[in-house]
Amino acid sequence: MPEIIFASRNKGKIQEVKDILVDTGLHIISLLDLNDHEDIIEDGLTFEENAVKKASHVFNKYKIPVIADDSGLVVNQLNGRPGVHSARYSGTNASDDQNNLKLIEELKYLPEPHPAYYVCSAVCYYGDNYLTAEGKENGIIILNPKGSNGFGYDPLFIPENYSVTMAELDPKEKNKISHRAKAFNELKKKISF
Description:
Elements: E1 3-6, H1 11-20, E2 27-30, H2 47-62, E3 66-75, H3 96-107, E4 114-125, E5 130-141, E6 157-159, H4 171-177, H5 179-190
Parallel strand pairs: 1-2, 1-3
Antiparallel strand pairs: 3-4, 4-5, 5-6
Helix pairs in contact: 4-5
C-alpha cells in the first residue's frame, strides 16, 4: 500500500480526506501522525499557491509523496474575505468560534442573503511535478450558527439546494457535496504511483 503524507494537522480535515480517498488504497499519514508541529507560513495570494507551498515543504522534509490543500470561505459582500485568511481571520491562532464571530459581526449590518462559496485547492507532489485540482461549493451565510458536525465556518454555511448548514449534514452527505470532496475526487483521478 503506497504511503502518502497529508500535510495537515486539522483533525476534521484529515478525517474528511481519509474518507474521500478511502477507495484509493493509499496509506495516508498526517503531520499529527508524524508529530510534526512545524508551522508552514501560508503567505500565498491564492489557495493553490498555499497548497503548493505546503506540499513542497513537506515533500522536501520527508521525501515521500505528499497531498496538501488550502481552502476557505469567500464572501461576496466582503470583497472575497476571509479568503486565503479563513483559518486565521480573527488572528494567528484563532479558534473556529472566534472566526465565526468576526464573520457574523462583519455581516450583521449588510442586507440578506449573504452569498458565499467555499473553495478548496488540492495538490499532490512527489518530487516531479504538481498535480492540482479545485473544488467549489456555493451557498449562503447565516448569522445564527447551527449544527455540531464539521468545523470552520460549517455552522454558518448553507450549501446551495439545501436548507441546513454544512454542520447539520451527516459527514457522509457532506463528503458528497463539499468543496474538499470535489477537489480531492478530481485529484484522485490524476494520482498514480
